[in-house]
Amino acid sequence: MNNPFLIAYNTPHDTVPFDKISIADYEPAIRQGMKDEDEEIRQIVENSDKPTFGNTIIALEHSGKLLDRVTTVFFNLMSAETNDELDAIAEKLMPELSEHSNNISLNPALFERVKDVYAVRDTLNLSKEELRLLEKTYDGFIRNGASLNDADKEKFRKLSMDLSSLTLKFSQNHLKETNKYELHISDKENLAGLPESATEAAEHTAKEKGKDGWIFTLQAPSYIPFMKYSKNRGLRKELYMAYNTQCTHADELDNTDIVKQLVNTRMELAQLLGFDNYADYVLRKRMAENSEKVYNLLNDLIEAYTPAAKEEIKEIENLAKELEGNDFELMPWDFSFYSEKLKNRKYNLDEEALRPYFELNNVKKGVFGLATKLYGITFRENKEIPVYHPDVQAFDVYDKDNTFLAVLYTDFHPREGKRSGAWMTSYKEQWIEDDSTNSRPHVSVTMNFTKPTANKPALLTFSEVNTFLHEFGHALHGIFANTRFQCMSGTNVYWDFVELPSQIMENFAVEKDFLNTFAKHYITGEAIPQSMIQSIVDSQNFNVAYACLRQVSFGLLDMAWYTRNETFTADVKEYEKNAWSKAQLFPQPEETCMSVQFGHIMSGGYSAGYYSYKWAEVLDADAFSLFKKKGIFNSDVAQSFRDNILSKGGTEHPMTLYKRFRGQEPTIDALLERNGIKNN
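^ thats the sequence. predicted structure below, dont judge the formating
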């Protein structure tokens, strides 16, 4: 009973007692969680009373609380602060957790009770939210094999267990490969062109590793500035190739065969459930509904943006030839370098010159202050809340009437135990207890931003500010959750709707009135010059068509993998290059491969769903046009967005929620106008 998961937390807001949890606590707590849930399911199944919404559907919703409590912490830390011991526990327990889940979803007696309640749903006088829960529960059983015959149920068990092991191995390999690589520079001449922020960070990394000189890595705050500023084309190529050939080296970290196994297993699972391919299975529960609508969106974007993207590339090529000679051939490792030079020339915008005005603490005040302006909420750091790493801060979030709303954790900097990228997650989701107590959420935003050095605090790039706004938008979706059932609160929505709250926040990054609230020089306190803000605004559509086609290419690759209906045995690299060819603007080096490191679609939640970013961009452009019309800090528009989108979670169909906020269905026009592809 010393296991902190198995006793009352006795922490502020019942937050996770990270300071008391040891690695040895996870396995016994997970096993106890599975045991408890098995008993809860047994009681539902053996209940002699007639199946009802309360004794079956509500009872199911309330089951598994301990297991959820432990695995939420465990898998969040697998992404944010993992190590070999956690990896070993995951490898051991993932098959057992998958089997445990299957034992519930494939339990015939349990499904019979759910089916009995579902059959009389029209007579139960359920609220909208209750009906949604019943439908979600029934569909969940169907989509997890409950209606299969016994032989096919066994196949489903094996396939789902294989998937859990494969996705874990894929992620572990990618993280290890990222951490393994170092570009170690000892000659100062090879730093030519790099800004002081990049060289200081590289020197700091070298010292952390007990080496002299400078070390650049494949983590974004190191990789991106090197590709953007290094004058050494050979080293740019070396770093580019290292990044884009991760997990391809025919060693223990190679993900090539794992990709084949993943896409084939997902296809087989979908076909077992009666679908032609995995995309059909996934899209049945998405706003897009089917692959035809996804391809229509992607093809419309290709048609609209390709002419502008080609012009953007041509302009960069012309500058490169002007600087290097007419026989210079622009390659992928040159794009960021000459693109940055062109942006500086056209808009007098040097991203490095912006950094001093984007000190992390000031940016945090600006982003939190934006939420205060829009929604009246406030953030107060609470140092009594335990955290899992010294980099992490915890905040109490209070509503405009000063009632407690949520806990927010922030974790900003890269380290070896953290996977790449940026994400929002929850350590506890929101729900309403049977006694009407509103159990509030604990939300986390995790990123990989520029680290502070010995001489400077963390000074962010404009792109990092944008990423902060994006993840904070997801956080608001969790913070404002206000639903009765946990499984529908916050970000538990259709996957192609989940990016709307995040992407709408990115719009503020180029708004003068927002930047003026926080962008101050970290030494002098001087406000960012208006000329710099104007340059940011003027440059907001720089290379926007190229960026669009890049996202579209990822969507095409994703759909190519998951609209297959035959076993894949061919060459992964060749298939990839064909799949996204019509959205590619550069020849791809033969050795490179995205699929083997594309965690979003292979080990994350975006399989047959990467198009969601562009789908949601159509929504966010249309939605933000209302803010632009009424005022970017308009509290009435913000309150409507909170009431109709952020607080509702998955309680209603997302298009119903969207139209209630916007008054109309979205069109692509607002996006084309915002990007300058189409005039008002």
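The longest strand covers residues 404-411.
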